[in-house]
Structures are given as C-alpha cells and as structure tokens.
C-alpha cells in the first residue's frame, strides 16, 4: 500500500482493531523477528488486545486514518530501573519501506519522554539478522551499543541480539 503524503497517527488500541491487527500479527514475514508467535485466530488477537495492548502503559496502534497498520510500545521499567524503557514495533508488510516506522517511533519517543518524567534511556534489542529494524533505530539516532551473544530464545533458536540505546540528552532540541 503506497501511503506517501498520508499522515500517520498513534493511538491506544481498541477491540475494533482486531481485524487489522490480525493482518500484521498473523503474517509470518512480520512475526519472524518479533517475540510474538504468529497469531492464527481472531479470538487470540482479541485476547492479546484486551490483555496486553489495552492495559499497557504505552502501547499504540500506528494508524492511517482509523486503520491500524502497525504496533508500537514503550515499556518503562519499575523501581530503580524506571530510568529506562524498552521500545518495540512491527508494521504490516504491505507498508514496509516508506519510512513509516521511523516516523512513528520518533513520534512515540517524544510522547514517551513527556509522559514518563523519570525516563532518561530508551533501548531496543534487535536480532542480528534484522537489518531493517536496526536501520530504523540508526535513522532515529539510537546508538549501537553492543552485541549480546546467545541472549534469548526465539523461533526455535538461541539468538544473538544487538542492543541499541537512546538517551534523552542525545535528542537534538
Ligand atoms: C522493522 C520494520 C518495523 C521496519 O518498518 P519500515 O516502516 O519498513 O521501516 P522504515 O521504512 O522506516 O525504514 C526501514 C529501513 O531499513 C532498510 N532496510 C530494509 N530491509 C533491509 C535489509 N534487508 N538490509 C538493510 N536495510 C534494510 C530500508 O531501506 C530503510 O532504510 P533507508 O530509509 O535508509 O532506505 C518492519 O520491517 C517490520 O515490521 N518488520 C517485522 C517486525 C520487526 O522486525 N519488528 C522489530 C523487532 S526488533
């Protein structure tokens, strides 16, 4: 879907997003590098929206108009770790390659630093083979901080992960 010129917005999920959500969360091209197993039913998608997205402190639907084309979250840690938050995202494959995720994550970062005053660091862990996601983070200004070898299990194998970090002080005024 070519969407150049169309504005993207970020908003909380509602249960009416379920069919759109299933388009990307049910697509193996999208879930290959995510922690999701590929969603296979509307019920499963609805349960995830209800139990994860809606109660989440900052989970957003990336939208064109009111149509959900992607998923994004900023998850602040708690207690002594509340200075940092994890960032994650995924976009419907038909929309890839148009700069949408880069724009959406930039918007979410501004919102996140405003919304969570204790936050000074955003971080993202990306599989070594996930070059598109690494490029998104580099374009935004995240620093590639290192490779965590054999860090986590995903899709049947233990994966090396790249740690990316962005400090609030890295952002240009
Ligand atoms: C990662 C993802 C969100 C990127 O979304 P997107 O909207 O296409 O990203 P953007 O268009 O903003 O930027 C993608 C960049 O990666 C580059 N890219 C894409 N595939 C690439 C590859 N195989 N190797 C190197 N660069 C690649 C693009 O050229 C673009 O860079 P450019 O603007 O310098 O040309 C999307 O591919 C996706 O949903 N992937 C599956 C889920 C996922 O991996 N989530 C992140 C988990 S950490």
UniProtKB/TrEMBL annotation:
Signal peptide: none annotated. InterPro entries: Acyl_CoA_acyltransferase (IPR016181), GNAT_dom (IPR000182). SUPFAM superfamilies: Acyl-CoA N-acyltransferases (Nat) (SSF55729). One of its GO terms (molecular function) is acyltransferase activity, transferring groups other than amino-acyl groups. Residues 8-165 form the N-acetyltransferase domain. This is N-acetyltransferase domain-containing protein. It comes from Ficus carica.
